[in-house]
Each structure stands twice: as structure tokens, then as C-alpha cells.
Amino acid sequence: MENNKIAVGLDIGTTKIVAMIGRKNEYGKIEVVGIGKAKSLGVKRGVVSNITQTIQSIQQAVDESESVSGIKIENVVVGIAGQHIRSLHHSDYITRENADEVIDEFDIENLVNQVHKLVMLPGEEIIHVLPQEFKVDSQADIKEPIGMYGGRLEANFHVVVGQVSSIRNIGRCVKSAGLDLSKITLEPLASASAVLSQEEKEAGVALIDIGGGTTDLAIFKDGIIRHTAVIPFGGNVITDDIKEGCSIIEKQAELLKIKFGSAWPGENKETEIVSIPGLRGREPKEITLKNLSKIIHARVQEIIEHVFLEIKNYGHDTAKGKLIAGIVLTGGGSQLKHLRQLVEYITGMDARIGYPNEHLAGDSDDSLSSPSYATAVGLLMEGLQKEVKIEEEEQVIENNEETVEDSSTVEEEIKPLIEEKKPKRKSFFEKFTEQLKDFLDNAE
Hints:
The chain has a domain at about 235-300: Nucleotidyltransferase, domain 5. Helices cover about 40% and strands about 25% of the residues. The chain has twelve helices and 18 strands. The strands form five sheets. A five-stranded mixed beta sheet has the order 3-2-1-6-11. Strands 14-13-12-17-18 form a five-stranded mixed beta sheet, sandwiched between helices. Strands 7-10-8-9 form a four-stranded antiparallel beta sheet. Residues about 410-425 have low confidence and may be disordered.
């Protein structure tokens, strides 16, 4: 594969917006050539609440990454989160016209496209259709049906749904910042591809991505995504509580949380005190670290219990749904001291902090493997995967055309097949992205 295939991940978060440019090196690892970040002002709880400010922040992040890398960014892969995301399970089937031919990608694509026609609640749109197990005729629990014979192809799907208006607002911001949207991906899925190993996904694992505005959850078992959820609070509510509880300004609360914060109140002695300068001409405030960690503990416990409820809803205590690899914590909020211990205490499951360094090239900057970049790295991986796929498909079409040119007798027979297969290449999601582009073009 040529080395010039470049992709860009754009993580539009509640606290920061990150634009990450990268490519694959010869070992298949990701080389980040430029990164830019800007403070995110127009996003609340993962949803755009101020278009103008969001556009400015995107432009700032993109300009910074362009000046670092010297590469002009054209299209980006964007992550979507927010409290409007929900997931549901659905099974569907197709009856194949010719049972004597083996099942190929097009059959699966037809089945997925059929699920995309599901009627949603008004104002909702399907973001992802993720097949779980397949069933061919009466044989169940098939992971990979391609190459098998069968007349009826059936599958269980994990369908992720979001609000049309929120998706369009994100598209609008990206377009107004002068960029093209090549793909929209659910943020917990992006984070998962950046920090989870294949073994963990097989064994069963829950990824908890604690961001500023939202906490995202993705559960994998047997290598397949089983459950996703977005919980509408994250690190910012902890800061708010510190601000209220200690009567200080937000900037100070955030610094306190990062520098001295702990999720485990037993750690601090009564005598440990931090002094905070008062606002212009006022006396400094003295705050005991024990009180600080009590405030943090109460809030973190609430977030974890919400997430744990989702894990219970998935059915982790059944023999079939057991999550052997436990929990992986990532995102900026996962850097809070003693958070891992608290999570293990509340859930009774093993936990580790997930760093997105597994897929990064060895000589990458250490700061890139911070958990707060997990989503950006994941989006970048999605983008690179898409590039490879497009290249492979072009190759297939070219090869088909070459073989056709060689044998003029077969030409009449195969030509229509190639013509037929070409348009089918667009997945539903690409169609959706195109519709979104058209909509935005017309809106202007």
C-alpha cells in the first residue's frame, strides 16, 4: 500500500475539539503527522449548542494541525455522541434468488440495507447497523456467512439511532468550517477500536469513555459489539460540583480536580489543606482535600452506577453474557486518581485504564497516548480503514475490467455484471452522508 494515504479524525467533544492527521507506516501502525486542538465552546453534553462557536473551534483545531503537518485537510471522519443516541436490537432476513450460489458481500449488504429501511420515531435516523450473529437456513450462530450456501440469510442486528437534527448540526459545522464529511461514527465505537485488544473483545469487555460532557459505553463479547449507550454527564459535572461546593470559579475547580482530586475519600487526612487565591482583593480560601474528594467521590459514584446499570441491562451476570475482561476506562475523565479502584469496588469487575497506544507507531509522541485522545485516534483509524477499502474496491473493479478486455468473447457476459456491481458499492451510510451533504448544500 502506498504511504500517501492520509486520513483525518475530528473529535468534536464538549471540552475540546481535536483534529488528528495520520497515515499508516510500513508496519501497519499509525503515524500521526499533525494534531491540533481547540477549546470547545459551542458543545454541551456532546451536542452542538452554538453553531458559530463550534465552527470557529473546528477551524482553529484544523488550522493548527495543518500548520504542524504541512498538509491541507479536505475531508474528515467525525465522531457523534450525546444523550440522543440510543440502541436497539432487531433481526431481519432476506430470501436469496439463487441458493446454488455462495453468499457474498452483496447479500450481506442487501440485508443491512433492508434494516436501514426500518421505520424510526419521528426525527430519528439510523447511524449504524451492526450485524451480530447470522443464521443461514436453519443453522444458527454463524459469525461469517460469506462463502456458504443457503437460501435464507438471517441476522440479529445492533442498531444505533440518533436525532436527525443533531447529526445535521454536526454536518453543518464541519461543512461551514470548509471541510467534507467522509464518515460519521459513534464515538464509543471509535474509542473502542483505539484502546481494546481483540482478545478483550472476544472475552467480553465494557469500555467506559468518560469525556467532559458525556460518558460513553460500548460492550463487546465474542468479538462483536453487543451494547452501546451514551450517558449525558461526564467530567464537567464533577467540576461544577467542586465549584458550587467550595464556592470557587470554574478554572480553579478544574485545576483542583486535576491536581489534587481523588475518587476515594479515605486517602486524604483531615490536615491536608489547599489554599486558593480569592477573587480580586478577597481573602484566600482554604479547602481540605478530604472535602474535595468527598465531593468528587459522590459524583463519580453516580456516573459509575449509571454505567453499571447499563451493563446490568445488557445482562453481564448471565453465563452467556459474562464479561471476562471486565472494564476498560478511557477518555479524559479516566485520569482521575483512584478511579480504577472505585470502579472495581462498585462493579466487582476488574478494570484497567485504556491508552490508545497499541495502534500508534513506536516513535509517536507520548502525549498522543493519553486516554483523552482515544476517540481521535479511533476516528483516524476509521478514516484510514475507509481509504484502504476504497482502494481495494477500485482495484477489484480495475482487475475485472482488465480480464474483460483480455477476452472479448466473455466481454458481453461480464460487462453487465461489472456495471451492475459498481453502483452497489455504496453502503447505506455513504448514501446517508451524501444525502446530508445535499441537504446542507441546499440549505445554503
